[in-house]
């Protein structure tokens, strides 16, 4: 969906149409959830601090998010997808991969299916969506951004190489700022440069990840569309009112552990194996520390204790302040596959 | 410094000390052996600062003196020389010259003053026992030691010296192995020491079967074992071993006597189809019969039935089959006795006619 939350707001309030709209909570610490295309012209984008958005675009109208309405639209568009295929892998409320190799509607091509879905979305939700059609997931994702908003872009199998060659490497999934910089040192800026380096050299430098990079550079991606992929992690996180030093995070960890534990209790047939502490520094560096204890926590307070224990493994300078903290349970496995070895001694398992 | 010796006479003490030397050292001199000629014999010492092994042997054409020589290289050279070769080694300034027949080697040395040795151990207790007995005690329990556990005091073996007995105990927190022997001499106060894992492995490697005696010297922070021409010294783990006696079940009133080899064979076969990660098997007891069952994620299944002298019925307990097999391998005797209470409680495995050797295994909730 194009500028999803902002578009829903503009649809529901005619006064917002044609004007820069920023969806964000009020408050000095909030971040932008979505920005309308009118606001994006001023350089506003999602995940930016709301304060900065306000400075860039003082005339923008700030609207607090209303997830119940967004979720309702999300259900509508999923119902539209489901008319065409059952192989739907949702990425978020407004994004999904669809495998349309075989469709229920029998439309002649993937392109025709994409057009039919876009038309139905426009008709039934009065919102616009963009689609990418390609032989695999990673290409479809890049293609979907190509003609935004309200666009469709098709990468046919024969066009894959030509499409990828000029792309900056940062467009490949998994290539972030750090990887981009490392590749730049090798004189690699585009996917074409990456492909020219060759598999052997990439593997020599980056190991298994190098192998994957080589595959991506040639447009290979074997990952299938996975419908109903269960969430792999249950977590709660909060951006704090003020940036605080590490030692002061404990009450937040305790509170978030309680929330995470409550959500975990609703998981009746899965067991978590790993405890995760997530932190974001005042300069937006994200770090996580995790622990897979032999004995799983049995209560919110035990979870809090183990999660808080992980703060000892944070090795940033003493003066570092943190803006966000999260507590998660990961490595969820089916309870049936989980075998528990009993302990001889009743001893607390302290993280080392 | 100088000596002359036949290859085989040098190879044995070299083998005894070279195992202690770590492949990666914190200090360069720890890669070397201390080679010393004094009092009419040749003495070799290897150390990793935690465990020290000293071996001596008679040699000829002796000239007193000491130096340190790269351990691995010296060992590899001596091992590769032909059988029966006569080896002459002489210190020339900062180099050691090793000659054997038509082979000549010049090795770098480091001054012996840099080599750390453990001299005084502040002796607090001393016992003597047959070498074969100590070896059996340690071999029958060492497998249960933890490896790199955060509970560092489990990464070793407890020697529990009591008035008339010596016990070796090891546990990884899931199972525990204990073996004890009566002592001829009487000990004044009970002492518990923990030998680190590496020390245990080196000591077991040193001990042989035979009717020799070994001296165990309990120091304040060390254990020293004297065996003939070899002296083993290990630092102790500074920590409290858990109260192991509390986890040896007393109320395990459900007993089954089973032929040890028959049970072992059945478990080994069932293990093939147990889950590779947890290695779970289920033991189901009914009068005169023990049924062992295993299945894996591929839904393959093994069922074994074993005759058992038992009145127990309606009891089903899961275990890691590896723990059961380890315990059975450490026991001797024709029959073993399993003592159980319920599916949540530990199982005590021992020989059916004595309790010198005891193995406690916690269940696996399957």
Average pLDDT score of chain A? 88
Question: What is the subunit organization of this protein?
Answer: heterodimer
- The coarse silhouette of chain B is elongated
Helix share of residues of chain B?
10-25%
- Helical content band of chain A: 25-40%
| Count of helix runs of chain A | 12
Which structural class is indicated by helix and strand composition of chain B? alpha+beta
* CATH top level assignment of the largest domain in chain B: Alpha Beta
Fold and architecture overview:
The complex is a heterodimer of chains A (352) and B (366). Chain A has 352 residues and is α+β, with helices and mostly antiparallel strands. In chain A, 36% of the residues lie in helices and 20% in strands. In chain A, the strands form 5 sheets. A 4-stranded antiparallel sheet of chain A has the order 8-12-10-11, with helices on one face. In chain A, helix 6 links the parallel strand 6 and strand 7. The longest helix of chain A is centred in the middle third of the chain and has 19 residues. In chain A, 30% of the residues are buried. Chain B has 366 residues and is an alpha+beta fold. Chain B folds into 3 domains: 113 residues, DNA Polymerase III, subunit A, domain 2 (DNA Polymerase III, Chain A, domain 2, Roll), CATH 3.10.150.10; 123 residues, DNA Polymerase III, subunit A, domain 2 (DNA Polymerase III, Chain A, domain 2, Roll), CATH 3.10.150; 114 residues, DNA Polymerase III, subunit A, domain 2 (DNA Polymerase III, Chain A, domain 2). In chain B, the strands form 4 sheets. In chain B, strands 6-2-3-4-17-16-15-10 form an 8-stranded antiparallel sheet. The longest helix of chain B is centred in the first third of the chain and has 12 residues. Classes of the chains: A alpha+beta (352), B alpha+beta (366). Chains A and B meet through strand 14 of A and strand 26 of B.
């Amino acid at each position: 969906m194009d500028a999803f939350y902002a578009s829903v707001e503009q649809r529901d309030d005619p006064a917002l149409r044609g004007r820069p709209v920023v969806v964000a909570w009020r408050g000095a610490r909030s971040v932008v959830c979505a920005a309308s295309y009118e606001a994006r012209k001023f350089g506003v984008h999602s995940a930016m601090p709301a304060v900065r958005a306000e400075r860039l675009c003082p005339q923008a109208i700030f609207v607090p998010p209303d997830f119940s309405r967004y979720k309702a639209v999300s259900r509508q568009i999923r119902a539209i997808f489901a008319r065409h295929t059952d192989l739907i892998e949702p990425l978020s409320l407004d994004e999904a991969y669809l495998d349309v190799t075989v469709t229920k509607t029998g439309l002649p091509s993937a392109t025709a299916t994409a057009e039919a879905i876009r038309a139905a979305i426009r008709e039934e939700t009065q919102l616009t969506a963009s689609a990418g059609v390609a032989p695999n997931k990673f290409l479809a994702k890049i293609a979907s951004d190509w003609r935004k908003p309200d666009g469709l872009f098709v990468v046919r199998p024969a066009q894959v190489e030509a499409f990828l060659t000029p792309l900056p490497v940062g467009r490949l999934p998994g290539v972030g700022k750090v990887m981009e910089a490392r590749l730049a040192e090798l004189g690699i800026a585009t996917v074409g440069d990456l492909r020219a380096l060759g598999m052997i050299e990439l593997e020599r430098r980056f190991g298994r990840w190098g192998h994957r990079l080589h595959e991506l550079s040639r447009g290979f991606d074997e990952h299938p569309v996975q419908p109903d992929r269960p969430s792999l992690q249950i977590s709660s996180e909060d951006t704090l009112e003020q940036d605080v030093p590490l030692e002061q995070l404990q009450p937040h960890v305790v509170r978030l552990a309680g929330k995470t534990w409550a959500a975990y209790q609703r998981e009746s047939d899965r067991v978590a194996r790993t405890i995760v502490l997530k932190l974001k520094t005042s300069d937006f560096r994200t770090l996580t520390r995790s622990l897979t204890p032999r004995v799983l926590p049995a209560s919110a307070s035990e979870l809090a204790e183990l999660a808080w224990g992980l703060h000892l493994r944070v090795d940033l300078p003493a003066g570092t302040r943190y803006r966000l903290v999260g507590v998660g349970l990961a490595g969820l496995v089916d309870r049936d596959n989980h075998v528990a070895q009993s302990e001889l001694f009743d001893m607390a398992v302290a993280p080392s | 410094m100088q000596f002359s010796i036949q290859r085989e006479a040098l190879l044995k003490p070299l083998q005894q000390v070279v195992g202690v030397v770590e492949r990666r050292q914190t200090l360069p001199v720890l890669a070397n052996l201390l080679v010393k000629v004094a009092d009419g014999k040749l003495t070799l010492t290897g150390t990793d600062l935690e465990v020290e092994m000293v071996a001596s042997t008679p040699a000829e054409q002796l000239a007193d003196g000491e130096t340190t020589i790269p351990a691995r290289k010296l060992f590899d050279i001596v091992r590769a020389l032909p059988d029966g070769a006569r080896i002459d080694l002489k210190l020339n300034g900062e180099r050691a010259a090793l000659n054997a027949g038509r082979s000549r080697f010049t090795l770098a040395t480091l001054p012996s003053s840099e080599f750390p040795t453990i001299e005084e151990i502040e002796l607090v207790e001393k016992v003597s026992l047959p070498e074969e007995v100590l070896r059996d005690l340690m071999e029958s329990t060492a497998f249960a030691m933890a490896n790199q556990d955060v509970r560092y005091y489990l990464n070793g073996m407890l020697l529990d010296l009591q008035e008339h007995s010596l016990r070796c105990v090891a546990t990884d927190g899931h199972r525990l192995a204990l073996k004890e022997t009566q002592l001829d001499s009487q000990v004044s106060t009970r002492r518990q020491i923990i030998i680190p894992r590496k020390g245990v492995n080196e000591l077991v490697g040193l001990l042989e079967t035979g009717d020799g005696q070994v001296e165990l010297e309990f120091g304040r922070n060390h254990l020293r074992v004297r065996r003939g021409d070899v002296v083993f010294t290990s630092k102790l783990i500074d920590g409290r071993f858990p109260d192991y006696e509390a986890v040896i079940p007393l109320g395990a009133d459900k007993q089954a006597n089973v032929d040890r080899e028959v049970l072992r064979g059945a478990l080994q076969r069932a293990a093939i189809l147990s889950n590779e990660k947890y290695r779970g098997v289920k033991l189901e007891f009914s009068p005169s019969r023990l049924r062992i069952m295993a299945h894996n994620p591929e839904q393959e299944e093994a069922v074994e039935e074993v005759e058992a002298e038992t009145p127990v019925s309606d009891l089903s307990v899961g275990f890691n089959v590896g723990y059961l097999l380890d315990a059975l391998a450490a026991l001797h005797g024709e029959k073993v006795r399993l003592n159980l209470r319920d599916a949540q409680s530990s199982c005590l495995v021992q020989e059916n006619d004595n309790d010198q050797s005891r193995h406690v295994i916690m269940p696996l909730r399957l």
